[in-house]
Amino acid sequence: MFPIWFLFLFPITWLIIIPANFLVDSLVLIFTLKYLQYADIKSLWKTKIWPVWGFGFLADMLGAGLVISIYLTLVELSPDLGASLIFFPGTCLVAIPGILLAGILIYFLNKKITFKKADLTPQQLHKLCLSLAIITAPYTMLIPLYW
Question: CA angle 18-21-24, nearest 5°?
């Protein structure tokens, strides 16, 4: 819900982030299953929400790690460039690879692990995992640091 730097500057925000991410993941899971006309949404939600939520956090952290690595590498190559990257559109250029990585990880971790044994057709599985990946990717990484 917030960029990774915000969580470290204001640690109290974790108390907001954890339930907010759980709520967003739950809503995406429930509404996507309704859209797919899945019969037993409540049962699937009960058994799968925790892995969906956990893999989402893991993917977000790995995406944030990539963004930080890219930024630190660019700062090392050129301190002036690194300083300019905290402003828009530099933030976007550095953040997009992390957002993409997180989305891809959300898709594949849920597809290969979370829903591996779920009673979903291949098409339902693909659409559900794609929905989770696209909607819950950490777009807040695009928020410039100076804001």
Answer: 150
Whole-angstrom distance, CA of residue 75 vs CA of residue 144: 16
Which residue, chain included where needed, has tokens 């739950």?
26
- Give the span between the Cα atoms of 28 and 111, in whole angstroms: 15
Which structure tokens are listed for 132?
């989770």
Q: Along the 147 residues of the chain, how does pLDDT read in single tens digits?
A: 445 555 666 677 778 888 989 999 999 999 999 999 999 999 999 999 999 999 999 999 899 899 888 888 887 887 776 666 666 676 778 889 999 999 999 999 999 999 999 999 999 999 999 999 999 999 988 877 665
Q: What is the DSSP letter of 111?
A: I
Contact 62, 102 (CB under 8 A): yes
d(CA 98, CA 93): 10
Read off the pTM: 0.87
Write down the residue that tokens 């969580």 correspond to.
7
